Amino acid sequence: MHDHQAETLWSQFLSLGVDGPLTGTRLDLVAALQTDWGTWRDLHPDTTALFTGSTPSRDNYAGYYNRGSAGILGEFNSDKQLGRKELVLGVTENGDTKAFPLVLLQIDGVVNDVVGGLSIVVIGDPSGKTAAAFERTVNGRGLTFTTKVTSEGGQELVDNQTGTTWEPLTGIGISGELAGTVLKRLPTTYTFWFAWTDFYPETKLYRS
Amino acid sequence: MWSMVAGLVLVLLLALFRPDSLNGVFNFFRPKETLFVTPEDRFQQPPLELEIVTVIPRDGISAILNPGQISAEQADDWLAPSSQVLGVSISGEHRAYSLALLSRHEIANDVLGGQPIAVTW
Questions:
Q1: How does pLDDT run across A166-183, given as a tens digit for each residue?
Q2: A192 closest CA partner among A95, A74, A107
Q3: In a domain, B62, yes or no
């Protein structure tokens, strides 16, 4: 990325200025959720959508996502622990990095973990297509989470300390002691394994 | 030398084809053996070894600079339930960024919940 004001080149992956006057400067990462429109709209009925006047329906990279190849420049730190195009949710906290494979999150549902000293919970959607990460310390109290299948076949999140039920993809407390509390969503990178290890070769990898 | 030649070939290729017609990913940086040095002690992590590779010239892919927004009902006419989006929530405001749109521009400069953000793809 290149900015028009300071004429600095920035690395998207590292959120860091890498060439020009602001070299070494960090950009704050904003937490986001990669999912499909139907899911996002259900979670946030009052959402808006970015609009430019053009309404493309097809992603030009659809073919690339589904191919096994790494792209024009290829990969530079081939790490065979996972297939190069396997999707991971990457977490970076306090200089520590960890990748959570989407397929494992789909199976395990919820992972209570610590990354860079921060207690986090990573939640995999049953679809296997999306995942979310939150801090799991609320008002100074450490929580651990498990998932529960609802009568409608959906997924709910329950913490072991208060029994509160939470919405998995938004971290909103739905019922119980902490109803109305919102877990803090963590910035994550939804990416291919080869790209994550190119930029974070020392990354940890979640295994069931 | 060969990387310069390869870079030149890629730039020429991109001059011939619209970037968005290529099914590929453009990495601008790649790890290298040499040390990446910063001018000051602003680095918060061990220095990463980087080589900057320019594949597409500056503004070769046009970023979204002054976007508008539409309501969910209006977006339903464009986006299918299965359309991939990046969803962002700031200060109680929620906005979906279509990946079909973002992949054509790679960056959207926007303001959400009063906060200027760059949504990058």
A1: 999 999 999 999 999 999
A2: A74
A3: no
